[in-house]
Amino acid sequence: MSHFHFETEVNDLLRLDAPMSKGPAPRWQRKSTDHRSSSATASTPLDRSSNSSRLNCSKTPSKTPSLKKTPGKAKTSEDRFIPNRSAMNFEMNYHKMVSADHENEENSSPSKAEFKKKMSQSLVGNDTNSRILAFKNKAPTPREGHLNDLRVLYSNNKTPATSTKKNARHIAPVPERILDAPDLIDDYYLNLLDWSCHNHLAVALGGFVYLWNAATGDIVQLCQTSTPDCYIGSLAWIKEGNYIALGDSNGVVQLWDVEAQKRLRSMAGHSSRIGCLSWNSYILSSGCRSGVIHHHDVRVADHHVATLSRHSQEVCGLKWSPDGKYLASGANDNLLLIWDASINTISNSNTPLHTFNQHQAAVKALDWCPFQRNVLASGGGTADRHIRFWNVGSGNCLNSIDTHSQVCSIVWSKEYKELVSSHGYAQNQLTVWKYPSMVKVTELTGHTCRVLHMAMSPDGQTVCSAAADETLRLWKCFATDPVKKKSKPNQILSSSLVHRGIR
Fold first, then answer.
1. How far is Cα of residue 444 from the mean position of the Cα atoms in its chain?
2. If DSSP codes are grouped into helix, strand and coil, which group holds residue 251?
3. d(C-alpha 147, C-alpha 261), whole Å
4. What is the pLDDT of residues 138-191, one digit of tens each?
């Protein structure tokens, strides 16, 4: 029989999930057994007599003799505190706590994601590939004409002296002088203002042309059209400043001697009004309403030397480059054409060097950069509102900026790397821009109608604007820096002495 008991015990040990029949009793069983035995012993008459004898010996027999605590409280005081094991899972509790904090944070500030999005856009824009780099030294400049899609924002530490010097130039927000211009035609496609190198400002008012001497303030009427129906549509000074060309509504180009106040010749050939003129030495180019451009050699009797007829609508912008190599023409067909002088004026070719069609409106505002070769600025009308910069050597668009208003005229500064543009609705303002960053330097307001024309003074400091409100306003936008003005004569003198061999 003994081996049967042994097998039974072995089976009991192997079955771990079964209750143990042998072995020491658990602690909770021992505690319950001790509690029942103690309670049974306390309930015997012997104990009661002993308790009563102890109470009889107390000093205060009148008090309640029963000092025994309630069984429930006694049990609670004797039991050991066992904590909840699930509350000690620190990893799970930390995860729940962090998740709850995130949920509370999102519920309390629903605009936090939008705030982060706006902050990132203000720093790097909408381009996700942009980077922010901080350099102690000046950032390297890219090569000319280089365009990088990966925009890089540099933060460069500048000395206080440099920043103070850059902000020292002040541009007066009000014009220096205002002149009346009655009967100034409100027509976007005409060019009715120009300033000569002898400081004479010419303006066409209907059928009259007036000259204002900026040095003395004298006003002279140069000419008047033969018939009341005829009006002057364009005018342009020759580079030397002693002759002026006028284009009228009958398609005739007139050449006038200003000192003698005498018309030298009339050059016909256009079928309709002439809205723009431009000089290149002795070659005078005229743009017509029919879209045709004529080249006139004013030295010879047979003045017509070439015809360009690639525009389909009225030519309203015409400008020769300073070196006389290129001619830029803009028209109401939204095209900007670049003509090579060596080809178009000699062989009478009708093929432009470049054709730019990025503008979405008439291209009237044209001007060549005086300090960067082959760079042209052009401005579009109401449907376009953009100023675009072109490298006519390579045919690339260097930059484009939305001005949010009609661009009527553009003039580059000779003193600074800046340009000024005139605009129409809604502010009718003049805007001075930094180049090439195209950051606004200032806006000059005062005209009540669109600013159709602009002209630069011969010293390069003052800009004259003519608007449809029949006023001319003179703005001193590019005042000469006194430090540079003093250093220029010294540089010229030293260079001349070196050239002569005197040191």
1. 19
2. coil
3. 52
4. 666 766 655 555 554 444 444 444 333 455 588 999 999 999 999 999 999 999
Q: Is 195 helix (H, G, I), strand (E, B) or coil?
A: strand
What stretches of 347-395 adopt beta strand conformation (E)? 354-356, 363-368, 375-380, 386-391
Assessment of whether the complete model's pTM goes beyond 0.70: no
Distance CA 14, CA 2 (A): 19
Write out pLDDT tens, residues 359-401: 999 999 999 999 999 999 999 999 999 999 999 999 999 999 9
Give CA–CA dist 448/445, Å, rounded: 9
Residue 105, Cα to own-chain centre: how many angstroms? 35
Sequence-distant contacts of 130-135: CB under 8 A, at least 24 apart: none
Residues 127 and 149: their CA atoms lie apart, in Å, by 9
Determine the 3-state secondary structure of 448 from DSSP. Answer: coil
DSSP-assigned letter for residue 206:
T
Read out DSSP for 309-330? ---SS-EEEEEE-TTSSEEEEE
What pLDDT, in 10s, does the model give residues 21-72?
666 777 777 777 776 665 555 444 444 444 444 444 445 555 555 455 555 4
DSSP sequence for 108-169: H-TTHHHHHHHHHHHHHTT-TT-EEEEESSPPPPPPTT---SS-EEEEE---HHHHHHHT--
Listed in sequence order, the residues at least 6 apart from 350 whose beta carbon sits closer than 8 Å to its beta carbon are: 307, 308, 309, 310, 344
Type of residue numbered 337: L
Q: From the CA atom positions of the chain, what is the Rg in Å?
A: 47
Q: What single DSSP character describes residue 26?
A: P
Identify the sign of the CA torsion 448, 454, 456, 461. Answer: positive
d(CA 415, CA 112): 48
